[in-house]
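quick one, two chains, predict together pls
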Amino acid sequence: GQQLNQSPQSMFIQEGEDVSMNCTSSSIFNTWLWYKQEPGEGPVLLIALYKAGELTSNGRLTAQFGITRKDSFLNISASIPSDVGIYFCAGRPNMDSNYQLIWGAGTKLIIKP
Amino acid sequence: DTEVTQTPKHLVMGMTNKKSLKCEQHMGHRAMYWYKQKAKKPPELMFVYSYEKLSINESVPSRFSPECPNSSLLNLHLHALQPEDSALYLCASSQGFNTNTEAFFGQGTRLTVV
């Protein structure tokens, strides 16, 4: 079946550093989503991307829908302690099936004080 | 109100018990979902309800039984679970099966089967 390769698996960074993570697939996706999940909570949608080449920001977060429609990246600028958590990418391969999401394995972000 | 509320937050049950997980949303969303999430893994879709009708069952064992009493409520009835069913159970809702209507997730119920 379709899979998403999300990397890196985890990141240890200093507060104030910029962060970059990405998801790639061998298949085309029509939607890319980026979620953040903190311990004991459900995933929270950060950014949704619907068009190839689309670049969208949400505060210090920026995400892009790759031109080939097979990848997406998420950047976080000037990280702060509350950015810790697990970041998941998710892709929707078929516009007719809104429920069907393929999820990446997650990137765990740890910030050293 | 932009919340999906799940109760209980934590649940410990024996393998012979019957219990139910509850989910509620008041955003007027017409699609509701149950996901299962194991530690350090992404959520896995279990069931989807659309307009109070079961639309998707991702080959979930019958010991999990969903129910949608009305457009705001979603239940997951549990019976004769196994220890490997221990996980975080997430409820989500979205406006419907249209594009560009992404799901809101609840906080989840942390289930432990002993």
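Chain B has a mean pLDDT of 93.
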